Amino acid sequence: MAEVRVEGLTKTYGTARALDAVTLAFPDGGFFGLLGPSGSGKTTLLRAIAGFVEPEAGRVLIGDAPVENVPVEAREIGMVFQSYALFPNMTVAQNVAFGLEVRKVPAAERARRVAEVLELVRLGPYGARKPHELSGGQRQRVAMARAIVTRPRVLLLDEPLSALDKALRVEMQIELKRIQREVGITTIFVTHDQEEALTLSDRIGILRDGRLVREGPPRAVYDDPRDAFTARFLGEANLFSGVLEPGGLRLGDGVLVAGARTATVAVRPENLRISLTEPPAPIRLRARLRQRIFAGAMGTCVLDWQGETLKAVGRDRDFADLPAEGEVWLSWDAADTIPLEG
Ligand SMILES: Nc1ncnc2c1ncn2[C@@H]1O[C@H](COP(=O)(O)OP(=O)(O)OP(=O)(O)O)[C@@H](O)[C@H]1O
Questions:
Q1: Which of 115, 185, 243, 298 is the most exposed place for a label (fewest CB within 10 A)?
Q2: Does residue 41's CB lie within 6 angstroms of at least one atom of ligand 1?
Q3: Is the CB of 13 under 6 A from ligand 1?
Q4: Alpha helices in the chain, H assignment, sequence order
Q5: Best substitution site from 40, 193, 212 to test ligand 1's pocket, by max atoms within 8 Å of Cβ?
Q6: Residue in 153, 196, 191 with CA at minimum distance from that of residue 49
Q7: Ligand 1 touching residue 264 (CB < 6 A)
Q8: Is any atom of ligand 1 closer than 6 Å to the C-beta of 39?
Q9: Does domain 4-229 have CATH number 3.40.50.300?
Q10: 70-103 pLDDT per residue, tens
Q11: 38 Cβ inside 6 Å of ligand 1
Q12: What is the torsion angle, in degrees rounded to the nearest 10, for the CA atoms of residue 165, residue 170, residue 175 and residue 178?
């Protein structure tokens, strides 16, 4: 196991800055989720850590040692990608054993370690099967087994679950977390799915245009996103813009939001309340309800406030008394105002 660090990592393709002076530490034994829009540099960062991409500037350290002169195969990294290519003609056990054979691990120890790791991914009885005789989730477990059987110091996962359907993905998220905990391996995980990143990660990092915009524990980043990009990227956020005054932010109807540092603040959809009668809350605005969407246990209301589209999320029964559309009151607790930085 080892801590991984990148310092000032920079990589340009033509005119595209895939990585722009990224400095970041991935804690030893932790599960780190890398998030960002398409093209923000997530895969490039993983590939630079693995050694497939040579940065123009900056360096990668694994366990305190710079690795620029260490070739890919000697970096002791396990990898799982979305398109985990299993060898189709080999059995599950042979697929898993392959990396050990390459490393000339003796046959008896090989067999023992393959059996052990197949138990770990709950594929004990499946060693003799071929990949085409497995489900998608089982194949993904073989890919995991193959990545960890060589006992790497670092595990890199690039969207490993995105080919699975929603139900299976959720099941595999739980499995992935369990396996990572049991093995205790430093794991760096790239995903498009912010919910997945929030569920699995001890820490997350958000990339935008090759730059690291935010890093920290998921809850801390969610609760205090600091800028509008992060607020909107991680979860959903309603933005309220007004006029900044000494006492706070003045919004449309004369409401004053204390504590604002910029002309825009954010409020999470789950913290917006909607009512037909004027609420006692100090922060209350008139808005127009445009649509109510029923989605099982939770419902969403789409509203319009001064030309901005807003969303409120709650239990569907909390919205039961509301009309399909019309004028409503919108309110939230002062503590749920998220101040943004300029
Ligand atoms: N081999 C390459 N040649 C040229 N440009 C590349 C190459 N690899 C990546 N890029 C560019 O670098 C930028 C970052 O790409 P990268 O694949 O790291 O993003 P990403 O965040 O992983 O995106 P996605 O979520 O879509 O996979 C993009 O603008 C991409 O077009």
A1: 243
A2: yes
A3: yes
A4: 42-50, 92-102, 107-120, 136-148, 166-183, 194-200, 218-223, 228-233
A5: 40
A6: 153
A7: no
A8: yes
A9: yes
A10: 998 889 999 988 776 899 999 999 999 999 999 9
A11: yes
A12: 160
Q: Closest residue (by CA) to atom 24 of ligand 1?
A: 38
Percentage above 90 pLDDT, the chain: 65
Q: What is the mean pLDDT of residues 53-60?
A: 95
Q: What is the pTM of this model?
A: 0.86
- pLDDT digit string, tens, across residues 172-195: 888 888 889 888 999 999 998 888
Q: What is the largest CA-CA distance in the chain?
A: 77
ipTM above 0.90, yes or no: yes
Same fold, 4-229 and 238-339: no
Which residues does residue 154 pair with via DSSP β-bridges, in sequence order? 77, 186
In testing the pocket of ligand 1, which one of 19, 42, 159, 189 has its CB within 8 Å of the most ligand atoms? 42
What is the pLDDT at residue 1?
A: 60
Report domain 238-339's class. mainly beta
Q: What one-letter code names the amino acid at 14?
A: G
| Residue ranges per structural domain of the chain | 4-229, 238-339
Query: CA 198, 199, 204, 205 torsion: positive or negative?
Result: negative
